[in-house]
Amino acid sequence: MTKSTDHQMPELDFNTPALKRHRKIRALKDRMASMGIAVGGNSVILAVLLICFYLLYEVMPLFSGATIEQQASYAVPAEEKGDSLYLSAEEQSEVGMRVTNLGNIVFFSIADGHVISTVDNLRADVKVTAFAVESDTSRLMAFGYEDGKALIVKHDYRISYPDDKRKITPVVEYPYGEEPIDVADFAINKMSLRDGSDSLTMVAIGDGKSAITKVSKDVNFITEEVELSEQRQSLPFVNEVESVLISGNQRYLYVATRSGQLSEFDLRDFDDIELKDNISLLKDDAKLVSMTYLLGQSSIMVADSSGRVSQWFNVRDNATNEEHLTFIRDVKQPVGLVNVAMEQRRKGFATLDERGIVAIYNATSTRQVVDEKLTDGTARLMSFSPRANGLLLEDGKGLHFFYVDNEHPEVSWSSIWGKVWYEGYQEPTFTWQSSAANNDFEPKYSLTPLAFGTLKAAFYAMLMAVPLAICGAIYTAYFMAPALRRKIKPVIELMEALPTVILGFLAGLFFAPFMEENLAATFSVLVVLPVGILLFAYLWSRLPTSISWLVPDGWQPLLLIPVIVLLVWLCLAVSPAIELSFFDGNIRGWITNDLGITFDQRNALVVGFAMGFAVIPTIFSITEDAIFSVPKSLTQGSLALGATYWQTMTRVVLPTASPGIFSAVMIGMGRAVGETMIVLMATGNTPIMDFNIFEGMRTLAANLAVEVPESAVGSSHYRVLFLAAFVLFIFTFVVNTIAETVRQHLRKKYGSL
After folding, report:
1. pLDDT value at position 1?
2. What are the angstrom distances between the C-alpha of 716 and each of 62, 332, 412, 719?
3. To the nearest whole number, what is the mean pLDDT of the chain?
């Protein structure tokens, strides 16, 4: 009798203390991992937002308006010395000065108006009939008298520190002596002067007469004393003269009438002064209020009774090589003007109109930063302090001092992105030039050439990198033998670890001069190499199978190495013969002279090769991974249905991998846009707008690397550089946003494959 036994499996207990403890630990790890990932991701987003907000924090003051507030008000100091003709202040805005119609000079405290000192007219017995200021910065002035003589004076301020406290002592000097200079044989009604290192020029205009005096300065080589010699000439008389100006280089004389007719005289030949041009400065029936030079003595600012202030400067005509005074731009107040004051260290000015409203502008940006009513309409005189942070204004009630907070008037949206007609230029241009050797410099903060240079460098880099990287990735991932792929892919990815400063160094010091010397070979390689590779592939396909099968499938790329080396050597070898036969032995000269194309050694072609070399590993690696990650079932199914390898690649693999390929291209472009050292070292680093492949450029990133260490913290230059960084940030953000949007679209479209 057989006995059967049933073997039952023991029931598992999942609630043992050990398993419960394990589940709790695993749940804790999951929560910690989730929290860590969330914190890390949010921290990255927060960091990016903080960078964005910090850039905006530094940029926003550029576009904020100026403020003006009254600091002091008092009766006109030493009013008995005469009516004010001119107001001024020293550097610290502590001591003010007014010049009266009696030829007296009064120095006073700006804080409370008490008189510090007065300097009486040296010729009190002769009536002062004219007064002129050479410029606010030189502090040189001249009094014209009814006997035809002129006295030149200069006000200065000496600083001492008795008891460790600053003391400013105003003084008056007579640089040409206390004896007046004979300027004319008639009473002077209007006058102007211009002082230089070699000569002093003065113009006097009276009733029906006018004269010009030139005082030449010669240095005695023995005694090293300055010897003065005078020349005087009569001038063609102009009726109803309202304003007279001598150009900064003493080459031209401008005489303007009340109706706005300007007569321009050429002073280069002092013995034969001729009328050069007649210009109408004003529109309609407006009357001239003032005509004065902007900082630098290049631009003439013309104010009229209609409320308009126009800017004029000389522009050279290429056809005649002659300079002509040209209207540039203007600003306008709704009512007539009574006075205009110029800033001493910037291209700014203030207008005072009949309502007592003061408006402050910048001539370059035409930006109005202040427009406030400061007086009741009786004011007729005002002046900026040297730092433009103070404004003296005299009206019927007395003298007033206003504090002006106006840090960045030279920056406006139009000056950053639009064309601006700068002094000395023949037409409006996009220009970046943030500094110069002289104090009269007009800042040029156009970001347009920098943005253009950024896109230009990225374009040529991508033009080289994208075809090579994507085609290489396609072959490596799909056609190459696995053993060879395992060697090639790490080598290309290792290229990405090469510092870009090394690439820039090699491109600037080796490749750029090499390419210049072998231009014919460079362009020959671009043509011969693709044709030669295709020809070799065709010949290889025509070889007997007994020979072609000697090389295992997927290892054929190794055969191209000697072919490429041979073709490059051949191009270099025949380059001199090509250059001699077709370009008279000088291809660079042919490009410049015959084609009219400017050639710079460090140009966009060099950048394209160097930066393309740096971008290729990024695009290659991501593209290769995207193609290699396409499921094998898709490719095998396509091949099983009768498709060729090429059809499978173009119709199955590439569409499926397209999101990754597009991401690779966008990431590579982002890398090219933000590249710094290669562009800095491999181009001329000149901010020009020219798509010429033989010209250089300056990118936003390179500009930041060059100029941020040199900029003064808080200055307009400093904040404009932060604006450039913000623009670069926006470029990257836009590129990444487009990349993600297109990638998501492609994933939805081809995700079902």
Report:
1. 46
2. 7, 25, 11, 5
3. 88
